[in-house]
Fold this protein.
Amino acid sequence: MPVRLRIFSLNCWGIRYLSKHCAQRYCMIGDLLSKEQHDVALLQEVWSEKDFLFLKKKLSSTHPHAHYFKSGFFGSGLAVFSKHRIHDVFLYKYTLNGYPYMAHHGDWFGGKAVGKILLNISGLTVHVFITHLHAEYCREQDSYLPHRVVQAWELQNFIRHTSAGADVVILGGDLNMHPTDLGMRLLQSYTGLKDCFHETASFDGCEQGFTHLTDNPFTNKQELLPFGGGIRIDYVFFKGSERAAVSCESLSTTKGSVAGQPFPYSDHEALSSELVLYPVEEGKGDSKQEKDCTAGKLSELVNIVTEARTEVKVGLHGAERMRYTAARTGIMGLALLLLELAIAAVPCFALGTEQPFPKASFYLLGALCFAILFSTILLYIFYGMQVKALQGAEDQMRLAVGSLQERLKGFPKGTYEGHSQKEPDSREPDD
């Protein structure tokens, strides 16, 4: 007997006191969820736990089970509401998540992560993942690209290693990546997840599935003008198993304005997908097809991981350079502080008449030298952690490429000659 599962996903843009009409929009989102009664609602950027509790109370009759994932200084912003009992939860915080001194972007303080809940629906074990990756603020000079690639790498690893016993896997959230971006190709190629937008039998929504529209009143139009009407960066993915086949019957998005309201739900559009789960006899489900992995797919995956290694190396060179700069600046600050202390000690040993000592200037300069020294120590520690995280990701990718190439040797050479394998690029970032 087929089982229908309706999934809702929305980046709520819920920054208290900063996001426009935040309280009113949460009321609108709560009303929408109460009316539509999705099985699972995946919300991102619910930065205040008070707002989560407001929604939890409002949805207590339609979605009695809820969980808020706590991480970072402000929280992960991830919240899940479910009709079905949540049997287990887990949160994995990404090792790389921007820079603390880029306070106006705020990603570092948010503690970006991937959350997982476990549901049992009609005898099927369903693993639902929710995430929100680092934002892309400038596509031409994207200093966060290595971070987002590492996040995508960690996301696919987390999904693969924690969903081995799942009958159905679902991922939803704001991935902040275009459909053809490196991180997206890495995620889908490794996990076998299917994009609802491409798999759906029926679509009703914005042009090309856009979820971040240029004409949204909350959107910075200058950032989206190069892309025309908007971009697609919010997704719902799914995958079946040997015990269950999964298809996407319909996918819809909100279309900017809300009837009877002066503004939309958020600066992003909401996704609503209807999945159909078909319990099948063991051995006849989706994963059997995935096991029949062709040499061409393996070769393509080698190229994708190699490309990811290249981007990680670019980020690694940049982090090493910044760590060196921090160390050099710190040494200069220490030298200035020691020189100032030496100058201050001269009057103590001088003979003759006492000379006036400029205490105000001394204290001001001393405070400046100490601030420089303290700041550079913190930056050195921070970039040291960045270097270790990037090195760890690059090592994992190197081992993965070696394993994939070893698997390729089991295929006749002619089956993958058309897929040339890339060598890791040793290019360094521009200064």
Notes: The chain has a mean pLDDT of 88. The CA atoms of residues 292 and 417 lie 19 Å apart. The longest strand covers residues 3-14. The two ends are 60 Å apart (CA to CA).
